[in-house]
Amino acid sequence: MRKKLYFRKMNQKVIEMNVQIINKSKHPLPQYATPLSAGLDLRANLDTPLTLAPLQRCLVPTGLFMALPVGYEAQVRPRSGLALKKGVTVLNSPGTIDADYRGEVCVILVNLSDQPFVIEDGERIAQLVVARHEQVEWQPVETLSETVRGEGGFGHTGKQ
What we know:
Blueprint: H1 2-9, E1 20-23, E2 40-43, E3 50-52, E4 57-67, E5 72-77, H2 80-86, E6 88-90, E7 95-97, E8 104-111, E9 117-119, E10 124-132
Antiparallel strand pairs: 1-4, 2-10, 3-9, 4-8, 5-7, 5-10, 6-8
């Protein structure tokens, strides 16, 4: 309720979406840390702590299962504090959860630091952003419209 009041004070429209979710973890459902957060915090659902050695990767379960509406995806993204302070990030960032996936939401973490990192049960390990998407229908053509950039690729604009 407090979140809605904050939005009303900011004179912004509250947009809500209902998503079916099964929580088999020992933890509360993912939550937004602040009223204007885009990402919901995902927590590790572990029986025992998990040590991630330097340069090691692992699949961390969350205990969550969901059914997203058609036309939406959930993006699993790193937590900036965990990446900056500990060197731990989401390996396939952003990881995509499709609307037709019904398995457990898991997070692929990698330790890019030179120190082991211990993942504790209930620790916030990633964030989840639900986003609308479109599906394309390809239109094969012989040529593309011209632009100023043209075929300029990686680093073509140089240093500013």
